[in-house]
Specification:
The complex is a heterodimer of chains A (322) and B (501). Helix content of chain A is 46%, strand content 20%. Chain A has 13 helices and 11 strands. With 501 residues, chain B is mainly α. Chain B is globular and about 60 Å long. Chain B starts with a helix and ends with a helix. The chains are: A alpha/beta (322), B mainly alpha (501). At the A-B interface, helix 3, strand 2, helix 4, strand 7 and helix 8 of A face helix 3, helix 6, helix 14 and helix 19 of B.
Chain lengths: 322, 501
């Protein structure tokens, strides 16, 4: 009798909480983490770090799969059209929100196409210049650009990259114009700046900080509203001249739209725990990221804000491509 | 200075000389050899998969193992290039030319042996050079601006004409076709997609593995199958691995020259490492008394480029560790592994992490010894593998090619593209056009264009930059002179007569 009651109870519980049961079984096979860049970049490194810890937390392999192409568009489209069963996830950053304004045809919707899971990290960009330019502050640099105009060259890790857009935004806010020089990644751009072949560069912290510490480059300002932990003495652009200036890079995990909320919550819960692990935290900071713990709502809001922002900045700056 | 050399090397040796580091070094080299031998399956996928697992290892140990996979795979890749003419890396394209010709003569063993010995000697000298001159080398790399990079690649392209078999005009045409293929994909300056026909799989351009596997490897299989079984040029005999005295005498100078070329080119970011073996080959062919031997199994054509390649792989660590500049996908992953370990490349890494820097350098040297020892018994395995009838072997090769090509960016489109390049390569065989210059043009084309436009963007359209910079003007002048000597057959004929006298 007792057994029958428990059985009935159990059935009832299962029926009413099918949702929870779904989440309890998840994941029962390997999960794919799609990365929109080639293996080796900082987003790829972040994904592999996450994948390894997610496997430890959730008991199934989280396999990183690189689907580079079209500045991320290939991967974004692929995941937004994938089966929303929680077994195809996306690790994405700024390009997801930038590309719809940058390209005439993108075949995904950055807001409606995805179920946001976690905002994992944010990151600052830094404006660095070569020491021979003899400027120590953002104000001096801006004055120099006003004087010399297009003869000043400012590099970025790529056309349409967050660094390019941060520079573009700064030019329009400060009312100056320089010559933009696109590179293929932060490393080559930093090397050419150290070699003195360009004058300045907007780039993520990781490749720039060691050069700044060695005195090979001068850091003028970071693009986030708050100063960065890695360069505490460097002012923000907002402090140094353009109040309200904010370009905050972000990295987040997404599922295709329509993925059950219970699965989203489960992955989010695991990621929140991972980001708080001391070991992971310090490594993320070394990679130039600031670990943040934002759930689905935070990430969703972040994406929407970014989409709106770039939709305004990019047409102004006239940098659309096909 | 020499005190530094010994101190640095002793420090490195003390780091590597623990049982666990030696074991991980061996594991890396072994794994690298295995994935390198499988056609198309490259070190990139292997390192990417192992990356999370190295998380728990000490930093030096992790990098020693991953670096082992890197150069182990390069050696394994040479094995496949020599035995089966399936080059998966830019450097193996060069090795395949004379290495496979030697294999067809039944001297695959000697080709493999000289590749290992050359790599070891190059590794030894490059390690010593790095111990002495690393800071200078890092500085040298920084001197190269966009205009200089362009000039260097222009010089490399003219060199590609030297390396080709047959008519120089055909080689020039092939270089141009290669440049055109290289332009497919997204333009760096404007972010526009070009010649992609709206296919998203072409948005990042054609991958090197696809072009090289198709043009050199698959086309060779098609050409082989066309012949009746008895006439196939597939040699089953491997022969001995230790080169005899005559072979060593022919090889030692190319090994030293290759080491010099490789050490220098390896420091240059971008195409430096892949240019190293191409340049070494061109130099050997240019100074050889009888250039016609090249392409038909000249041992210098294996010894020089293989040494150059290994020296470059080693000195490559200078820009990688001091500037965070990867030379390709594999070193980009090593960079990722470093950052996961909390080591950020920078100018002070040699002072801050001397154990890591010198540990990795010395481990590469020890790893090369391991490769030689490892490959002695492996030759027996290859020999047995070559006994498999070709009708069984070639479908297996094609299968591995397809798997390898697929794993590069996880798209089936790449597999179809490889098949397409295979057919194109077959047409080239029929037209007697050598694919090597095409592949060099393919590698250098996009880099050249990128640097050319960057140089002009920086100067706002002023072409003077190419002649006002000393490095650039020297290289462009050298390229022009080389091109003139190639294009005036009269000069060449005159010189051949002079040589005969």
């Amino acid at each position: 009798m007792k057994r029958l009651i428990t059985k009935i109870l159990a059935t009832a519980v299962v029926a009413t909480t099918a949702h929870a049961a779904l989440a309890a079984d998840y994941p029962d096979k390997p999960v794919r983490l799609i990365v929109p860049t080639a293996a080796g970049g900082s987003l790829d490194t972040l994904a592999r770090l996450l994948g390894q810890r997610l496997e430890a937390q959730l008991g199934q392999p989280f396999v990183v799969e690189n689907r580079p192409g079209g500045n991320g568009n290939t991967a974004f489209e692929y995941v937004s059209k994938a089966k929303p069963d929680g077994y195809t996830l996306l690790v994405a950053s700024d390009a997801l929100a930038i590309n719809p304004s940058l390209y005439k045809n993108v075949r995904y919707d950055p807001v409606k196409g995805f179920a946001p899971i976690s905002l994992v990290t944010t990151a600052a960009q830094v404006l660095v210049v070569k020491p021979s330019l003899n400027v120590k502050t953002l104000k001096d640099f801006t004055a120099l650009v006003k004087q010399k105009g297009k003869a000043i060259t400012v590099a970025s890790p790529g056309s349409g990259s967050a660094g390019h857009l941060a520079g573009t935004l700064y030019q329009s806010e400060a009312g100056v114009t320089w010559t933009h020089v696109a590179y293929k990644g932060g490393g080559p751009a930093v090397a050419d700046l150290v070699g003195g072949h360009v004058d300045g560069l907007f780039v993520t912290l990781a490749p720039a900080v060691p050069q700044v510490k060695a005195g090979a480059l001068v850091a003028l300002a970071v693009t986030t509203p708050k100063r960065s932990t890695a360069l505490p003495d460097v002012p923000t652009v907002a402090e140094a001249g353009v109040p309200g200036f904010d370009v905050t890079n972000w990295q987040g995990v997404f599922a295709p739209a329509g993925t059950p909320a219970a699965l989203v919550d489960k992955v989010n819960g695991a990621i929140q725990k991972i980001v708080r692990e001391q070991d992971i935290k310090s490594r993320l900071i070394e990679l130039g990221f600031e670990p943040v713990s934002g759930g689905p709502a935070d990430l969703g809001q972040h994406v929407r804000e970014n989409v709106t922002k770039w939709a305004k900045v990019i047409p102004q700056a006239n940098i659309t491509v096909d | 200075m020499s005190m530094d050399l010994w101190n640095n090397l002793a420090l490195g040796l003390s780091v590597v000389g623990t049982w666990s580091n030696l074991a991980y070094c061996f594991a890396g080299v072994l794994l690298g050899t295995v994935v390198g031998v499988l056609p198309g399956v490259g070190p990139v996928v292997t390192i990417a998969l192992l990356l999370p697992m190295t998380f728990g290892l000490p930093a030096v140990t992790a990098i020693i193992m991953l670096a082992g996979i890197y150069y182990g795979a390069q050696y394994g890749g040479s094995t496949t290039a020599i035995l089966m003419k399936l080059p998966g890396e830019p450097s193996s394209v060069v090795t395949a030319i004379d290495g496979h010709a030697m294999a067809q003569r039944g001297e695959a063993g000697i080709a493999l042996g000289i590749a290992a010995i050359g790599s070891f000697i190059a590794g030894t000298i490059a390690a010593a050079l790095m111990a002495l001159f690393s800071p200078t080398l890092a500085h040298f790399a920084l001197e190269f601006g966009p205009a200089d990079n362009f000039a260097l690649m222009a010089f490399g392209l003219v060199g590609a004409v030297v390396l080709a078999r047959g008519e120089p005009l055909k080689a020039i045409a092939m270089v141009l076709v290669g440049l055109a293929f290289g332009l497919v994909g997204t333009d760096v300056a404007s972010n526009e997609e070009r010649m992609t026909f709206g296919l998203s799989s072409l948005a990042d351009g054609i991958s090197f593995v696809v072009a090289s596997m198709g043009l050199v490897g698959v086309s060779e299989i098609i050409a082989n199958l066309e012949k009746p079984e008895g006439e196939r040029t597939f040699q089953r005999r491997i022969g001995r691995i230790w080169p005899d005295r005559a072979a060593l005498r022919a090889a030692w100078k190319p090994i030293l020259r290759g080491t010099g070329i490789g050490s220098l080119f390896g420091v240059l970011p971008g195409a430096g490492a892949s240019l190293a073996s191409f340049t070494s080959y061109s130099v050997e062919k240019k100074i050889a008394r009888d250039p016609s031997r090249f392409g038909n199994g000249a041992i210098e054509g294996v010894a020089g480029p293989e040494s150059a390649n290994n020296a470059a792989a080693q000195t490559n660590f200078v820009p990688l560790l001091t500037l965070g500049l990867p030379s390709g996908a594999t070193t980009a992953l090593l960079l990722g592994a470093l950052t996961i370990q909390g080591i950020v490349p920078g100018p002070q890494i040699m002072e801050q992490k001397p154990d890591l820097f010198w540990g990795v350098i010395v481990s590469m040297w020890i790893g090369n010894v391991m490769l030689v020892i490892l490959n002695l018994p492996l030759v027996g395995v290859w020999a047995r593998m070559m006994q498999i009838p070709y009708r069984w072997l070639y479908p297996a090769i094609l299968l591995f090619c397809a798997i390898g090509v697929y794993t590069v960016s996880n798209t089936t489109a790449d597999v179809f593209l490889t098949a397409g390049f295979g057919l194109l390569g077959y047409v080239f065989i029929k037209l007697e056009c050598d694919p090597a210059p095409l592949l060099l043009g393919f590698i250098l084309g996009p880099l050249m264009e990128e640097n050319f436009r960057r140089a002009l963007i920086i100067t706002q359209g002023d072409f003077h930059v190419f002649v006002s910079r000393p490095i650039s003007v020297t290289l462009l002048a050298a390229a022009t002179v080389l091109l003139i000597t190639l294009l005036l057959p009269a000069i060449r004929r005159g010189r051949e007569i002079a040589f005969q006298e």
